[in-house]
Each structure stands twice: as C-alpha cells, then as structure tokens.
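In the laboratory, one determines a bound structure by crystallizing the protein with its ligand and collecting diffraction data. In a computational setting the workflow is compressed into a single prediction: the sequence and the ligand go in, and a structural description comes out. We illustrate the idea with zinc ion.
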Amino acid sequence: MEGALLGLGLSTAISALARWQRLLTRDGAIAAIAVGTAIFASGGWRWATVLLVFFVTSSLWTRISHVWKGQERENWAPSAREPEGRTAAQVMANGAIPVAAALAYGFGVAGALPAFLGAMAAMTADTWATEVGLLSPSMPRLITTGERVEPGRSGGVTFEGTAGGILGACTIATLALLFWPSPSLWLGTFLAGVTAMFIDSILGATIQEGFRCPACGREGERAVCCNRPTERRRGIRGITNNAVNVLASGWGAAVGIASSVFL
Ligand SMILES: [Zn+2]
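The predicted complex, in structure-token form:
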C-alpha cells in the first residue's frame, strides 16, 4: 500500500514535469501515471528506475532530434504526429507488456523480471533507433528489400539508427546488471532489445499500415496530411505503429524469458 502511494506520488510528479515539457499529452500523462504507479507498486524502486531511464533517455533523444531537424521532423516521426507529446495510446503501447510483467512479479510468477527487462530493452532500442535514425544524413533502406525510402517510413533502417538501438538495449541491460548482478540477465536483456528492434522494423516494413498523401505525395503513418485524409497504401488495416510496438515488446519479453531458461 505504501509502495502504491509512493509510486503514485512519484509518477504524478514526473508525469506533470513531462506534461509541462510537452512530452506527454493530457491523456498520455494520465496513462504514464498509471504505468509508473503499477510498476513501482509491484516491482519496487529498481523496476521503476528502469522505466524512468527508458522514459528520460527516450524523451531526450526526441528533444534532440526535434531541435536538430525542426519542422522537417514533424512530417516524419511517429512520436511527432501529436505535437503536444505522446498520447495515452502510445504510452500504453510501450507500457502494456512491462505492466503485465510487473503485475505477474507481484504475484510471484517466475520469469517476470527477465520478461520486464526484455520488454523495456525492446522499447528503449526501438525509440532510440527511431530518434537517432532521424538524425542520419543518409536515406534509410527498407529492412526487407534494401530499397531506399523516405526518412520516417516504418521498416526503414539506417546505420546510425541501428547503432543507436543497440546502444539503447545495452543501456537497459547494463542498468539491469547493476541492480541484479547476473551476466546471463545482461545478455538476455541485450539480445531481447536488439532482436526486438529488428522484429519491429520487419513488421513495420510488412504488416504495418502505411499511408500516402494525395496532395503532397508524402508517404507516412499519418491518417491526415495537408488538411485532408491520406490513402492507405500498404499493410493490414488496424496494424498501427502502436500495435507493432506491443508485438515487439511482447517479443522482447519472450526472448527475456527464453534467455533466463537457456542461458
Ligand atoms: Zn500532404
């Protein structure tokens, strides 16, 4: 109970700060409070610190790419579709699997910690890869065909983005090693993050729905561009970037669990 209250207090303070910085929308801030409270209450301060490191570093990269690329970025990044910050749907797409793992941990379910760390490494790698990739001077290549695509196209990869994602996975794995000194947990978390980043890109290139603006011709994830609805060009209806994020974090959790069994 005390854990829940402390978690609620800390999550509210951090979400209010993020809301003030326009990193979260109003409903995004409420979702972030729910995610933070559940993870702090079930997993304790070490779990909450992993979540905080994901959130702070991802927000920093978003801010850096925003400053660096300015308006150009607005047309690209999924996180910039809402100029007021990340929405509740985006927060939940990142937070659903970690929260499920934290609740499982609270009930004493085996494998909950490696699942949580795997999912967090997956989300961190994906966010770092996206934001660092937007800073790349070169055109991304589609992970499936190698064809050059516009920046921001789901499934497009760059050297810089991939390196950033690997570094993000490494950051969560190393934080895990500080809190739970186990080399196999480090390796499992790292592998979960790196493989999930590639799964995210492959799903982004294949089943994720993509749109094209009939006015300006830009390809992207936006349902509206140039003040008019865009046309769906590929992917499966309803498989949004958020759906792909849930699948990729689920993959990360699965790799985390498998690694804890086999490594
Ligand atoms: Zn347009």
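The pocket of zinc ion is lined by residues 213, 215-216, 218, 225-226 (CB under 6 Å). Keep in mind that any predicted model is a hypothesis to be tested, not a measurement.
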